[in-house]
Amino acid sequence: MTGRRTQFRGVGAYLPERIVTNDELAARMDTSDAWIRERTGIRERRIAAPDEKTSDLALEASRRALAAAGRDACELDLIVLATATPDRTFPSTATAVQAGLGMTGGAAFDVQAVCSGFIYALAVADNFIRAGQSRSALVIGAETFSRILDWNERETSVLFGDGAGAVVLEACEDDPRHLLSTHLHSDGRHGDMLYVDGGPSSTRTVGHLRMKGREVFKHAVTNLTEVVDEALAANGLGPEAIDWVVPHQANLRILRATGRKLGIGDDRVIVTVDRHANTSAASIPLALAAGVGDGRISEGDMLLLEAMGGGFTWGAALARW
Ligand code: COA
Q: Angle formed by the axes of helices 117-130 and 283-293, to 10°?
C-alpha cells in the first residue's frame, strides 16, 4: 500500500428508547407478528420520542463514536451526515450536529442517497481524506423514518425504524488497516419504485414514503450482488476473504438471498434488522456498532459494507477494520 488512506478509528450508535413490537402494530392495523417476521425477519423497531429529532440521535451516536476513538470533536475537520429525514429543509442536519459537538471549524454537510446514504457519505469522506483536504472526519447515518411513514399503510409502515450510527475516520500512511475502496451507483429511472410523495418544491409538504415492495426486492438482490462482485474484483479478492458482511438492513430475506448468491454464509453476516427494522442510512453504522460492541468484529478483520436504496442508489465498500 502506498500513499494516504482512510482508517476507521471508532464507531458509536444511538437508538431511541421506545421499542415498538410487531404485536403492538398488529393492535393498531391489519397485520400480524407472524406475517412481519416471515416476510422481513423484523421483530421490533425503535421509534423516536415526539421531540427527538434526527440531529439528536446523530449527536448522541457521534459522541459515542468519538469516545470509542478517544478523540475530541475539536480534532475533526469534516462532518458528512447521511439522512433522508433531516430536521429541516435547511440548514443541514450535519451543521446542527456540529453545533451540538461545540465544533466551530471544519466543514459539515448532508448527503442524501436514502438507504445507501452511509456508503455515499463514507465515499465522500474517504475521497476528502485521500485528496488531503481532510485529516479527521465524522461520518454519520441518522434517520427518523417514523416521521415520513403513512401509518395507515401496512405494506410500508411495519418495515422501518429510527436510529443513528457514526464512525470516526482518520488519515493514515502505510497501515494495512484502512478503507480499501468504495463503489457507488445510481439509476434514476427507478425513482417511482421507492420515494416520498412530497417535498418543498413539489407539494410543499413533507409527504409519505411509498414503495413497490416486490420490484424493490428484485432489483436489490441483483444490484447488491453486482456491486459486491465489483468491489471484490477491484481488490483482487474472493468472497472467502471477507470476515464480516455489514449490510444495510432492509429485510432478512434480501440479506440471505444476497449472501447465497455471493457464496457468503449466514454466520459471516451481521444482522440487526430483527431488532431495528430498516433504519435507512443509519442501519450500516448501527450494525457495525453491534458487531464491534459484542466482539464479533475485531482488529484486522476484512469488512464488506453494502447497501441499496431509493433512486435507485446502491454501493459497497471494503475495509480492513
Ligand atoms: N401485514 C399483513 N399482510 C400484509 C402486510 C402486512 N404488513 N403488507 C402486505 N400484506 C399483504 C398484501 O396485501 C398481500 O395480500 P394479497 O396477497 O391478499 O394481495 C400479501 O400480503 C403479499 O403482499 P406482497 O407485497 O406480495 O408480499 P411480499 O412477499 O412481496 O413481501 C415486502 C412484501 C414489502 C416485505 C417485500 O416485497 C420486501 O421486502 N420488499 C423489499 C422492501 C425493502 O426492503 N425496501 C427497502 C429497500 S432499502
A: 80
Residue with the smallest CA separation from ligand 1 atom 23 is 155
What does the alpha-carbon distance between residue 276 and residue 211 come to, in Å, rounded to a whole number?
19
Please give the distance, rounded to the nearest whole angstrom, from the Cα atom of residue 159 to the centre of ligand 1: 10
pLDDT digits (tens, 9 = 90+) for 261-316: 899 999 999 999 999 999 999 999 999 999 999 999 999 999 999 999 999 999 99
Mean pLDDT of all residues in 229-241: 97
> DSSP letter at 225?
H
Q: Is the CB of 39 under 6 A from ligand 1?
A: yes
**Are the C-beta atoms of residues 247 and 307 closer than 8 Å to each other?**
yes
Q: Give the Cβ contact number of residue 27 at 10 Å.
A: 9
pTM of the model: 0.98
User: Which residue out of 223, 248, 251, 276 is catalytically annotated?
Assistant: 248
For residues 221 and 261, is the Cβ–Cβ distance under 8 A?
Answer: yes
Mean pLDDT of 23-51: 98
Is 74 considered catalytic here? no
Q: Which pLDDT score is estimated for 199?
A: 97
**Residue 39 alpha carbon to ligand 1 centre in Å:** 7
Known catalytic membership, residue 278: yes
pLDDT above 70: residue 212: yes
Cβ(162)–Cβ(146) below 8 Å: yes
Q: Given the CA of residue 40, which atom of ligand 1 is nearest to it?
A: 35
Which residue's entry shows cell 457519505? 121
132 C-beta neighbours (distance < 10 Å), count: 10
For 193, the grid coordinates are 419504485
Q: Sheet containing 313-320: which strands, arranged edge to edge?
A: 179-186, 313-320, 302-309, 244-247
pLDDT value at position 2? 67
Catalytic residue (one of 22, 115, 172, 190):
115
- Is residue 55 within 8 A of residue 287, CB to CB? The reply is no
Binned at pLDDT 50, 70 and 90, residue 29 comes out as very high
Q: Is 172 a catalytic residue?
A: no
